[in-house]
Input
Amino acid sequence: MVVVALPLALLPAVEAAGSSPPALSGALVWSAPSHVDGSADASAGLGLTSVSCTSPSFCVAVSASGDALTFNGSRWSAPVKIDVANHNELYVSCASPRFCMAVDAAGDTMRFDGTAWSPPAKVNSHLSLGAITGLSCASASLCMVIGFYGGPSAGGPQPGGFHAQIYNGGSWSAPVPLADGGADAVSCAASGSCVTISGDGEAQAYSDGSWSAPSRFGAGSYGFTSSVSCASASFCAAALGNGEMTIYHGRSWTAPRLVDRAREGFAGISCPSASFCVAVDRHRSAVTFNGSFWSEPATIDSGVLAAVSCVSTAFCVAVDGRGDALIARRRSAEPVS
Output
């Protein structure tokens, strides 16, 4: 089997604030792509779009064709149709093997209880196709969806613009307006705090029922494929659509710095801790963060990568637009003779 080890060379040009973490033992090795969704149609943009793992023995991946697949640690299940409307982009976020939430671009949500998926139900009746831009669940009683909601002209009671809605374990809240800069990605940490970011360089935080004022991490336009991952209320990393990264350390965001010189634009990022993140770009490469530095991009796939999910420094899963999944495990360091 073909494997790819991420390089150990690090880029001092993208050093992050904070002291250096302990070195990781062994290389993170990616498997060859495995075709897991036979119904994926890359030419029609119906490949895998999102993945979420809670342990090395439980992951869920979803596709733009409305399929969901589960991973049990050794193999992927056959695709199950959960979204018959096929509203293109589908997001998934799992808090445990007994709770996952999926939402499509038109705001149809589906819940997984460990056995089966619920029928699609609208998070909001005033959403139109393409409105939802992100989903994240911290627990079975806290999920957040973000997106562009129609105003009164579209029949909605709220002013038009980007809004968030929160799931409390039983129902979704009314839409809450977000900053004018928009919201292109969201991440909720296990602590219950959430952060949204926009391609216009703004971030906004949610905690205990209230929202912070917007904070700016850059003055440029960073692309609408940006993504964010928060390991805690005091650490988030945002992978921006122009190949740059910015990191939040509890007080402010670092200035965005170029990590992917090809500027392919990052498709996803996952940070299980403040000293380890993996991001994938929209071409075929992955980069890792060790708490201080980002690695050089390493080619891991020949397709268009779409998302990544890591549960630790030793296990990650990435998916691409062709219906392929790749698994990364940390190879033990060889003994020194």
The CA atoms of residues 91 and 222 lie 21 Å apart. The chain has one domain: 3-330.
